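## tool: complex_structure
## caller: assistant
## args:
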Amino acid sequence: MTEITGRTRVFAILADPIAQVKAPQGLNRLMAERGVDGVMVPLHVAAADLPTVVAGLRATQSFGGAIVTVPHKTAIVPLLDAVSDAARLVGAVNAVRREPDGRLVGEILDGAGFVAGLRAAGHDPRGASAYLAGAGGAANAIAFALAEAGVGRLTVHNRTPARVEDLFARLRRLHPALPLASAADPAGHDLVVNATSLGLRPDDPLPLDPAGLAAGQLVAEIIMQPAKTPLLAAAAARGCRTHPGLPMLEGQLALMADFLRMRP
Amino acid sequence: MTEITGRTRVFAILADPIAQVKAPQGLNRLMAERGVDGVMVPLHVAAADLPTVVAGLRATQSFGGAIVTVPHKTAIVPLLDAVSDAARLVGAVNAVRREPDGRLVGEILDGAGFVAGLRAAGHDPRGASAYLAGAGGAANAIAFALAEAGVGRLTVHNRTPARVEDLFARLRRLHPALPLASAADPAGHDLVVNATSLGLRPDDPLPLDPAGLAAGQLVAEIIMQPAKTPLLAAAAARGCRTHPGLPMLEGQLALMADFLRMRP
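## result:
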């Protein structure tokens, strides 16, 4: 990293918990490679404090923007001045840019990053039958990106069926021909994705019943730390191929840097 | 600097303008030498936005504290939960520590740093006749530190005489025997100090009339950028020794790091 001076632009990642985030390492390395005078730092912000912290960042003229992750992706939307059409439909953002006049603009890059990470590992989701655990911010983004990438059908599982129906209603607006189902069992799907935060803490339950996993399936995570979640361990034990969470971040680092205008 | 991760503590300097600040370079170097997992970044904050930004920093659990400089040193005092006795008497702080429970505690280190910088350059102020331009936050801190260091008499100049009288009333509480005078002319003083922000911008007027400067005097600045202010240039042209602003920061880097608990 180049030396931080009074002219350095400051970027942040907003998260709770914070210790496991990887965006500072990735984006600081990318800025160094690009010759950008900027630095990304970790801001540990509890859910209840998000409006206060966002107000402070909006008022900080050297603040260039933030990556936003659990638990803030949906809660931050009404605090912003504008969001992209994709972010509005998904109902979440994971990147916020501060314009020179202080306006905060949000974008969702999770889904595109997840698909880019799958493709970089040799897994094209086109035509696949896909199963998604979760209906939160990241799950919404991945559902839209998988539909955009041309999956053949999509099953979504969430403890609260109303959240699945709400996601489906929005998906149908953009992808009316895509077959959608709400079901708990991942059996019979080519691609199984955990898009919940279950697995982040050691005592979390599994996000889905591993009895429905079998050889031939690809099981993918969005959790980056630990790299081998209990779900991926269970999937590997049942003969599945696995895809960890880190490629989703790697797949969107360049997308994030461009959106945040990390330019020399 | 060591790599920034999700575990790195974040420190800031709050200023307007911001480009000239030197604390990030000095304290990031010091943290690297001490093996501290922390980073200091520049936050450009206008005076009107200070309460909003301070509220945001208070709510950020990975925020360790801030260096505070022009124009925030006095304005930030009522925004804090506690200040040291010295800071309360001076009416300004230049360092704020965030305690783990979110309480913000302020301290003033400018004066001690200024005197440490003078001594490191071989100039002991003990017994000297001293002239101080300014009666703001930094000037107050330096006045108390010069009194503590044992100057023989102290003259203060400010466009608003009431601010000088107010400073004197507080100085007399701690140093009742020190001769004090309010006067514009720096002539006849061993040590002449600019403790205003005049000289920060190219079109600023001089903080004092250079006709009162002559060989034998030491003329000192608190402005760090530019290193050679118009006042120092005028002083050198009249045969004075000069002392730039940077040693005041260097003199207090270790004091700042200790106060901000920059420890491995």
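## assistant note: The interface with chain B takes residues 1, 3-8, 10, 13, 15-16, 18-22, 24-25, 28, 39-46, 49, 52-63 of chain A (CB under 8 Å). The longest helix of chain A spans residues 161-174. Handing back to user.
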